[in-house]
Each structure stands twice: as C-alpha cells, then as structure tokens.
Amino acid sequence: QxxxxxxxxxxxxxxxxxxxxxxxxxxxxxxxxxxxxxxxxKGPALLIAIRPDVSEKKEGRFTISFNKSAKxxxxxxxxxxxxxxxxxxxxxxxxxxxxxxxxxxxxxxFVKA
Amino acid sequence: ETGVTQSxxxxxxTRGQQVTLRCSSQSGHNTVSWYQQALGQGPQFIFxxxxxxxxxxxxxxxxxxxxxxxxxxxxxNVNALELDDSALYLCASRVAGSDEQYxxxxxxxTVT
Lengths: 113, 112
Prior knowledge:
The complex is a heterodimer.
Chain A lengths: L3 E4 L2 E5 L4 E7 L4 E9 L6 E6 L5 E4 L2 E6 L4 E6 L8 E9 L6 E3 L3 E6 L1
Parallel strand pairs in A: 2-11
Antiparallel strand pairs in A: 1-3, 3-8, 4-5, 4-9, 6-7, 7-8, 9-10, 9-11
Chain B lengths: L4 E3 L2 E4 L5 E6 L6 E7 L6 E7 L2 E5 L6 E5 L5 E5 L8 E8 L7 E2 L3 E5 L1
C-alpha cells in the first residue's frame, strides 16, 4: 500500500517530441506528489509537484496530470531536448510517519538529437 | 545547486565497520531527511529530524542512527556495515510546514 509504481523503466524520445512517464499509487492518504530529475552523480532535483485537489499543473515545458479516482499521475515533457536526458522519479508523501516520501523506481529518459 | 552540502563525496569501508556521513542544510531549513539510494533504484526514506529529534522513520534497522545539531546540520551513522549498505546516501532539507525538500549531491558509500 506504500508503493508507488512507475513506468516505463526507460524511454527514448526524439528531440522535439513529448516524453510521458506514468505513476500509480494505492495509499489515498498521500497528499503531495512531486517529480524529481536526477543527473548522474547528482542528487534529485525537485522539478514540479501537485496536490490531489488539482487535476493538472504546468510549469514551462513540464506538466503533471493527476487522476485522483484512478490513483494515477503522469509527467509530460513537451518539446523534449537532449538536455532533458536524465532519470526521473515520481514520489508521494503522506502525513503519517513523519515526512515519509515514497519514490518510484525511476525512468531513464534519453532524448535523441 | 540547492545549497545542501554533504561530505564526504565518496567513502570505502569494510564490512563490520562504522561510518558517519554529514549534511549541511540549506540556509533557513530546519528539517532534514536522509535517504538511501541503491544503484538503479529510487531513494528510500531512512528517517527525518526536526528540532534535534527523530520524528519519522522508514524500514531501516536501529544500526542506522542520526543526529541533528542546533545549526540544523546533521549526521547519519551506520554501525556494523553490511555489503548491502553500499549505496548513495542523500540528505534533503526543508522548512517545517513546507512540502518542498531539496537534496544534496549525496555520499557514495562502498562496503567491501
């Protein structure tokens, strides 16, 4: 019930294309859903986040779509660029047990020039 | 860069030894969390510290312990190291009451 399932494991997209990464969760107590971007040798960097009372949030080329009834959320990267090549993690945070944030297993994105 | 710093960058230890990792929080951040990230996996929550006390813990044994100091810097201590403890250890800081947490670059621990 504490898991966050992320797919696909890896993704190859042409430059200018749309990258889509999906996540699903079980625990309805989760109240905050961030996405992180991680480059090799670096820590995860907060990219964009959403709360369950909002169905979509857009920041620049990055959009989160949130489906509360299906317990699913996704990240869309529009006009994907080679510099977007990184590992992306979805995550979910609940109120119980401290600030426990559960991460998905990650998606390795490669954007071909 | 987030302003969260960690030391050392890399560390090699032998099974059974003890290790201390350090984290300096971003200015103004009074809450710190520690995560373990195995190769090819997402980070796993170890514990969180606020006001120098642990107030949340993941599924990690007691040989994983921590400290938070009055200046909000913190330490992660691991006793009786096992081979499976080899991982990237990340700390993340935030302001209490905010959901946004910011990660440091991590410490790569190798246990041989």
